[in-house]
Amino acid sequence: MTQFKDIYAGRKPALSVEIFPPRTEQSWANLQDELTHLVAHRPAFVSVTYGAGGSTRAKTLEVVEMIHTRFQVVSVPHFTCVGSSRADIREFVDRALAQGVQNLVALRGDPPRGAEQFTPAADGFRYANELVAFIKDYTTELDIAVGGYPEGHVECRDLTQDVENLKRKVDAGASVVLTQVFYGNADFFRFRDAATRAGIKTPIVPGIMPIIRFSQIQRITSLCGATIPTALSAALLAHADGSPDQQAAGIDYTIAQCRELLDHGAPGLHVFTLNSNHATSRLVDALGSYFD
């Protein structure tokens, strides 16, 4: 397998995709079909999330194993502080290492639904930098990615403070930063420049979510604190929600967004697929020359 530090050491941008574990037998079959199309684009890795509060944590490693075994692609589990004691972390890491996992996405995670603020588990951690430091102290075999927030974390809208928080995660041992979704590239460039000034030298990879339905993007951005540029909103609202014309407008915007990011030095793209290959495939097909 290959670690993050190897993936982002190349001269060409690295494509990666993110999926989530299926909840039913039918969605499991659907995911395997979608993955057949996604891995045809030769992603450097596929990352696998899990549900709120760790609800699909066991399935995450099951999916990671399936991707590695069936598709021979580097697969990377996510892990969050939510509901996780130190013993839980060690158990998860041991299971991941036993599967041959060499990379991990380490996040604080969102508060459980209905909770007004994040509360660490007993004998757990409040911040992602603490999680990263603990894992790095426990094993030297895992390369770690952490989250970055071009518009500031939803609980910390001060970009200066948020970059300081990011530096703590990098200093704790993170090898790469995967950002939250954003739709204004100026926000990413501002964030990247601030990180550079703060002494962060690890690759900062844009998190990209192709637009296929405006109402879906509105819901997601409202949860994560991202904004939708006025011109983009107007272009999408000119068409019926989820219509082919709206999908075309949204994907065209994302293609242009990604071209600008790659032309200005982004080390890759991390695409949030929502377990569907349609929009991702159109995006990657249009950007093929960057990854070939």
Topology at a glance:
Elements lengths: L3 H4 L6 E6 L5 H14 L6 E4 L8 H15 L3 E6 L5 H13 L4 E5 L20 H11 L4 E6 L10 H13 L4 E6 L3 H13 L6 E5 L5 H11 L5 H8 L6 H20 L4 E5 L5 H9 L1 H4 L1
Parallel strand pairs: 1-2, 1-8, 2-3, 3-4, 4-5, 5-6, 6-7, 7-8
Helix pairs in contact: 5-6, 9-10, 10-11
**Averaged pLDDT:** 92
* Stretches with pLDDT under 50, minimum 5 residues: none
> What percent of the residues sit in helical stretches (DSSP H or I)?
40-55%
- Can you name the CATH architecture? Alpha-Beta Barrel
Radius of gyration: 18 Å
Number of domains: 1
Category from helices, strands and their pairing: alpha/beta
Please tell me about this protein's structure.
With 292 residues, this protein is an alpha/beta fold. It has one domain (13-291): TIM Barrel (Alpha-Beta Barrel), CATH 3.20.20. 46% of the residues lie in helices and 15% in strands. It contains 12 helices and 8 strands. It has helices at 4-7, 25-38, 57-71, 86-98, 128-138, 159-171, 185-197, 214-224, 230-237, 244-263, 278-286, 288-291, and strands at residues 14-19, 45-48, 75-80, 103-107, 143-148, 176-181, 204-208, 268-272. It has an 8-stranded parallel beta barrel, surrounded by 5 helices. Strand 6, helix 7 (185-197) and strand 7 form a beta-alpha-beta unit. The chain is globular and about 50 Å long. The protein starts with a helix and ends with a helix. 42% of the residues are buried. The model has no long low-confidence stretch (mean pLDDT 92).
